[in-house]
């Protein structure tokens, strides 16, 4: 594998780490006891994640395509704008970056885990979960959210933006999805975003954490991939 590919793979690792550090970081700020931002609400989380994506794309974007999401990587390969041989290395890098990002959130909020007794709040800091557990409905929500994400990203490629503006536009897309479609499932729309931090939740020594809810974990993996595939098909039919 040449140096250029290794740089791109590293950029996915680094960018996804920043994405989760800042994204799960805002969840920790809102969810954990005695945080100065405790209970500040969904609007803060939605804006926090939008800015997390923006900053992560800026960090990773000068070294690679800044997918930061296995569903996006698959979609770009399907549309012919990304090499299939790099799909698996990108996904591995994204998951490992997400895992490390979640560990850094744990370290950043180290005293707060012990005083937080709500197991749902702790798990919600790391991974997504449904407001109403209904797997078919939860799956549909993730498919729709990721469809909008991927179709938006692919459509952006048909426009010219001022240099440096593209990550802000992507952040606006994430904000819109979070505010409009995030309520039912917490809008994973990214398998690495959920799986890596959920694995961190499983492994980290948090005495009050409870179960990692692996029974739900397939929804934020399968749903985003299906949504990405459908969006890619629609985009290719249009373009």
From TrEMBL:
<feature type="transmembrane region" description="Helical">
    <location>
        <begin position="39"/>
        <end position="63"/>
    </location>
</feature>
<feature type="transmembrane region" description="Helical">
    <location>
        <begin position="218"/>
        <end position="238"/>
    </location>
</feature>
<keyword id="KW-0812">Transmembrane</keyword>
<feature type="transmembrane region" description="Helical">
    <location>
        <begin position="168"/>
        <end position="189"/>
    </location>
</feature>
<dbReference type="InterPro" id="IPR023271">
    <property type="entry name" value="Aquaporin-like"/>
</dbReference>
<feature type="transmembrane region" description="Helical">
    <location>
        <begin position="84"/>
        <end position="109"/>
    </location>
</feature>
<dbReference type="GO" id="GO:0005886">
    <property type="term" value="C:plasma membrane"/>
</dbReference>
<dbReference type="Pfam" id="PF00230">
    <property type="entry name" value="MIP"/>
</dbReference>
<keyword id="KW-1133">Transmembrane helix</keyword>
<dbReference type="InterPro" id="IPR050363">
    <property type="entry name" value="MIP/Aquaporin"/>
</dbReference>
<protein>
    <submittedName>
        <fullName>Aquaporin</fullName>
    </submittedName>
</protein>
<dbReference type="InterPro" id="IPR000425">
    <property type="entry name" value="MIP"/>
</dbReference>
<dbReference type="InterPro" id="IPR022357">
    <property type="entry name" value="MIP_CS"/>
</dbReference>
<keyword id="KW-0472">Membrane</keyword>
<keyword id="KW-0813">Transport</keyword>
<dbReference type="GO" id="GO:0015254">
    <property type="term" value="F:glycerol channel activity"/>
</dbReference>
<feature type="transmembrane region" description="Helical">
    <location>
        <begin position="135"/>
        <end position="156"/>
    </location>
</feature>
<comment type="similarity">
    <text>Belongs to the MIP/aquaporin (TC 1.A.8) family.</text>
</comment>
